[in-house]
Task: structure prediction
Amino acid sequence: MINSESGQQQFEIGLYTLGDICPDPHTGNAISAGQRLKEIMEAAKLADEAGLDIFGVGEHHRLDYAVSTPAVVLAAIAQQTKQIKLTSTTTVLSTIDPVRLFEDFATLDLISDGRAEIIAGRGAFIESFPLFGYNLDDYDALFSENMELLLELNKNERLSWEGKFRSSINNAEIAPRPHQKELPLWIGVGGSPESAIRAGKLGVGMAMAILGGDPVRFKGLADIYRKAGLEAGHPEERLKLGVTGHGFIAKTTEQAKDEFYPYYSNYWKYVNGQRGMATSISRNDFDKMAGPDTALFVGSPQQIIEKVLYQHELFGHTRFLAQMDIGAVPFKKVAEMIELLATEVAPVLRRELNK
Result:
């Protein structure tokens, strides 16, 4: 979004979900995938009505996640919303046919009157490789080739193309074309300098997943992304930078930490247990992880504002997305946080950053 008066990118605020399904730490019960999807769609509707800018849905291929096809879920959301942008957070690009991906999101863009975009990533889990018949040894090569093809699909109504992993394309029509001139494309980056350089050279947006720790450690990624993009000849306004991270908002910071700790500990116990790692987070460790100088967006609206503004000083980013529904956080609480984000956090950030 560009400010028509200043020509500067406007700061965007929103939320995203991966649709995780795990037992509630208080009851031991987990909701069904169907209920989780209904709650995701309702959260997007609330975010749209509250005036937030963007809603993202991630991709996994596991029974403990509700979303395997972001385009389908986002198309359902498009029918219940009017203004909010709709993005994948992220699409596992290494194991999807770029032609099908482009067609799905071009269709979403038409359905939503130009609100679709794609954030592509390599994924935190690897189950999609054997599921769709890809070799994990080709992890990076698949992503590179598919990103190259996706960029060409985005630019051309008719295309000839040849690569290593996919059948050749010979003067084929690429349809439908999106409502927008081109779909906005981003690369999701977890900490790899190589990924940041790639995003810059390609001239696509970069979404940094900052899930904790000192945010200063990500400044180098932002710097090399912009440097690579400018050296490749891309205009500065094309080099869009976003920050995504875990969040929980309550009236006071202590209330936020008290309420979020069981769910946050529950989430990491569940995720780390799947990876054979240490599974528990003590309350003392959590309090340090949620401290005022860390990247974990937990606290009062004022605490969240201060963290976003501080990170903006570091990175100069123009998008902030919070993941607030992890670890079986009840939907009622998610709805309350959407209201706080929209009414108490977003107005201040827009006032301070859209000058």
User: Anything to note?
Assistant: The chain has one domain: 12-353. The longest strand covers residues 241-249. The chain is about 45% helix and 15% strand.
